[in-house]
Amino acid sequence: MTFDWRGWTRGQWALRVVVLLGPMLALYARGPSLGAPPVWLAALVLLLAGGWALATESVVGVVTLLVVGLSWSAGSDVGLPAGAIVAALGMLVAHLAALVASYGPPRLPVAPGVVRLWTLRGLALFVTAPVVWVLARGVRELPGSGSLWVLGLAVAVSVVVVAAVAAQAVLPRGDDE
């Protein structure tokens, strides 16, 4: 696999810079409550994010986001700081930028309509982050009951199933049926 970065359009460059900086924002958002990440961890995330920016369709993106997520979970037992919302934003914008950058060959100009579409979808998803954060902070005060988490998982799966069924009912079907 070769990476001809010299042929990227300005839109491709912009998207790939977002892919590079998003995980770094998510990593450093832990700073106020968990402290700055170790230098080796920041270097690892920067290296992985750079690889993801070069190969937006590769598994490097998943590994990058997993490393950032693990750094948050292994950081400390501070609870759920507000920086988690900023981290969610950084991870989401990096993912969406990689997704849009992977549409077509790198020399293809980025379509503004595609950017608008995925920006709106990303905003719709991101507005759930503060809601989930508030709910998680509220649930933190409840006794450590395993049934609460099972109930939460059941609700989450139900929402996904209902959304999938609703999407199938609303979206037009192709002519191949």
Which labels suit this protein?
8 helices; 177 residues; mainly alpha; flat
Major β-sheet profile = none
Task: Give the helix level as a range of percent.
Answer: over 70%
Computed structural class:
mainly alpha
pLDDT < 50 stretches: none
Strand content: under 5%
Shape: flat
The tally of beta strands, per DSSP, is 0
State the end-to-end CA separation. 37 Å
Q: Helical stretch count? A: 8
**Could you tell me the mean pLDDT?**
84
| Rg, nearest Å | 19 Å
* H/E series: HHHHHHHH
Number of domains: 1
Characterization of the model:
It is a single chain. With 177 residues, the chain is an all-alpha fold. Helix content is 71%, strand content 0%. It has helices at residues 10-28, 31-34, 39-54, 60-75, 83-101, 112-126, 128-139, 146-170. Helix 3 (39-54) runs antiparallel to helix 4 and helix 5 runs antiparallel to helix 6. 22% of the residues are buried. The model has no long low-confidence stretch (mean pLDDT 84).
Secondary structure elements and pairings:
Blueprint: H1 10-28, H2 31-34, H3 39-54, H4 60-75, H5 83-101, H6 112-126, H7 128-139, H8 146-170
Helix pairs in contact: 1-3, 1-4, 1-5, 3-4, 5-6
Brief description of this entry?
By secondary structure, the protein is mainly alpha-helical.
